[in-house]
Amino acid sequence: MSQENSLKKIKELREVTGVGFKDCKSAIDESNGDIEKAIILLRKKGIAKATKRMSRVAAEGLIYITEKDNKYSIIEINSETDFVAKNKDFINFGKEVSINTLAMNGELNKVLNSKMINEKTVDDNLIDLIAKIGEKITIRRSAFVNNETVNFSYVHSSIENNVGKLGVIISLKTKKKKEDLLDLGKQLSMHIAASSPIALDKESLDKSVINKEKEIIVEELKNSGKDTKIIDKIAVGKLNKFIADNTLLNQEWIIDPKKKVQEILKEFAGKDKIEIEKFIRFKVGEGL
C-alpha cells in the first residue's frame, strides 16, 4: 500500500472512530488497510467505542419512496458524488424508477427490466444516464410492503417530496384505523430514522451479530486488565446493553427516554393491540 493511500485510510479511520493518528496508523498497518478490520482491532484494544456509525460509507445518491393505496416501495440509487445526486436528470430518473419499483412490488430484477415513459427499460436508461453524466451510477437495493398492514413512511431532510438521504417505512399490525395512528406512525418512523435499530427485537437479531459483539467485548475487557473471574459477568451486562440499544422494541423512546418503544405501543393501543410487523430503513451508502 502506497504512503498516499495509507494516509487516506488513516484519515478515514480517524473520522469514523475519533481515535488518534498513531493508533489508527498501527491498526491500518496491522489490518493491511482494511477499515472494518482496523475498527475491530481498535475496539478490542479498548481504544474505540462501539458506534452504529462505524459502517464504512463510500457512496452518495438518494433514497426514493413511493406510496399508493397503502402500498409502499423504497429504493436506493447511488452516485459517486453528492454533486451528481443533486443533478435534475439524476433526481427525475430516480423518481420514475421509484414509481416502477412500487408497480413491481420492489423486485429489483423486475424493476431493471421494466419500461419507463420513453419505452426503454430502466437498465437501458441507466446506461444512458451514466453516459450523459459521466459518473458511475448504480441501483443498489429496493424493498416493498403490501397493504395488509397499516403503513407509514418518512424521509429525513427531503430535497423533494419523498426524496432524500434517509428513508423509513414501518408496518403496523392492528385493528385500529390509519387515521387514528397518524401521530404514532410519524413518530415511530422518525425514531427509526434517528436511532437506526438493526432488528425488531432480540429474537430477530442475527446471531452472528451477537456473537461478534460478544467476542469484541470479551477481548476489550481482557485487554483492559479486568479480573478473568468477573469478565463474563461484565460481558453479559455490556451485551444486554448492545441488544437494547440496537433492537427497536427495546430502545429508549426518542421523545421520552424514560420509556421503551414497546411501552409506547401499549399506551397508544389502549384496549386494542398494536404490533410492529416490520420496518425498513435505508440510508444512502450505509454498509458500503
Notes on the structure:
With 288 residues, this protein is α+β, with helices and mostly antiparallel strands. Among the domains are: 42 residues, Ubiquitin-associated (UBA) domain (Helicase, Ruva Protein, domain 3, Orthogonal Bundle); 155 residues, Elongation factor Ts, dimerisation domain (Tetrahydropterin Synthase, Chain A, 2-Layer Sandwich), CATH 3.30.479.20. It has 11 helices and 7 strands. The chain has a 4-stranded antiparallel beta sheet with strand order 3-2-1-5. Strands 4-6-7 form a 3-stranded antiparallel beta sheet, covered by helices on one side. Strand 1 and strand 2 form a beta hairpin. Helix 1 crosses helix 2, helix 2 crosses helix 3 and helix 9 crosses helix 10. About 3% of the residues have low confidence.
CATH superfamily of the domain at 60-199 and 269-283: Elongation factor Ts, dimerisation domain
Percentage of residues assigned to helices: 40-55%
The first-level CATH class of the domain at 60-199 and 269-283 is given as: Alpha Beta
Name the structural class: alpha+beta
- CATH overall fold name of the domain at 60-199 and 269-283: Tetrahydropterin Synthase, Chain A
Summed up, the helix count is 11
Give the ordered list of helices and strands.
HHHEEHHHHEEEEHHHHE
